[in-house]
Amino acid sequence: MKYKRILLKLSGEALMGSKQYGIDSLRLEQYTNEIKKVKEKDTEIAIVIGGGNIFRGVQSENVGIDRVQGDYMGMLATVINAMALQSALEQDGLYTRLMSGIKIDQVCEQFIRRRAIRHLEKGRIVIFGAGTGNPYFTTDSAASLRAIEIEADVVLKGTRVDGVYTADPEKDPNATKYSNITFQDVYKKGLNVMDMTAFTLCQENNLPIIVFDMNKPGNLLKIIEGEEVGTLVH
Fold this sequence. Notes:
Blueprint: E1 5-10, H1 25-39, E2 44-49, H2 67-91, E3 96-100, E4 109-110, H3 113-121, E5 125-129, H4 139-149, E6 154-159, E7 164-165, E8 177-178, E9 180-181, H5 183-189, H6 196-204, E10 209-213, H7 219-224, E11 231-233
């Protein structure tokens, strides 16, 4: 296996599947199957999931909600998604732990770095909810931070696009895909991989990012086995 310990970043929007909002059970089942295949290869898996299918903190000001309050609401949305994913994984016979950046003792453990690493070493899938636990930080930033803290080999950013392109492939038919690109070139070309805070964290800590299409069955396993899938940012 190319990667022993991974951090998988999933967007909340991806969980909507074909729905307008909320959680699509078929999409949840698909993701669970993909994660299970990787777990069967003895890969240590940590997951950070967004909350955009339920609530996005950055939109809160548009409806008259204070930004900080909105960000905390967004964190709670990520916990709801994390609980749904945890439940789906456990129904498939996988062992999990849900750790939160904010205290919700009745629902999950609080994030403690050493405990998270111990869970991974014991073969449990660790899901990190509530982002970093701080307002003004995205779940991308949480993914980068947690990946560095647990000493992951790579951040796998699962999206609905199969990599990083010269332009938005959904808007520009002439956009071409990079198979790999350096952090410096992403900066220079102004490409949208992760938000700048998350991206800089990865760059400063030499943590590679792979952007790939999570909705295509088998992609996650191919990456773990060392196949070139998506775009490698290094």
